[in-house]
Design a protein that fits this description.
Layout lengths: L1 H12 L6 H8 L3 H8 L6 H8 L9 H6 L13
Helix pairs in contact: 2-3
């Protein structure tokens, strides 16, 4: 999911797709689906590292990250 989010972000930033609608259409998904995935690119670097290391806390899910993600990194802290 992280790889997809960052790939889509790069495709938008590079101009490969002009907007979310174009990107969504090219991937056969809804614009809101793309938007929810792109929120993953706002994860704090420490959280991305933990996910990639397989060290994410129990109870964290893709749905929670896509729908319930504060923008401010300090507010994303995961309790231990």
């Amino acid at each position: 999911a992280l790889a997809k989010a960052y790939r889509w972000q790069e495709q938008l930033e590079s101009g490969e797709y002009a907007n979310l609608n174009d990107l969504a259409a090219a991937n056969g998904v809804d614009r809101t689906y793309v938007g929810r995935f792109l929120r993953l690119t706002s994860l704090a670097p420490e959280i991305v590292e933990r996910i990639l290391d397989g060290d994410e806390p129990e109870g964290i899910s893709l749905a929670k990250l896509r729908n319930d993600l504060p923008v401010v990194w300090a507010e994303q802290a995961w309790g231990e």
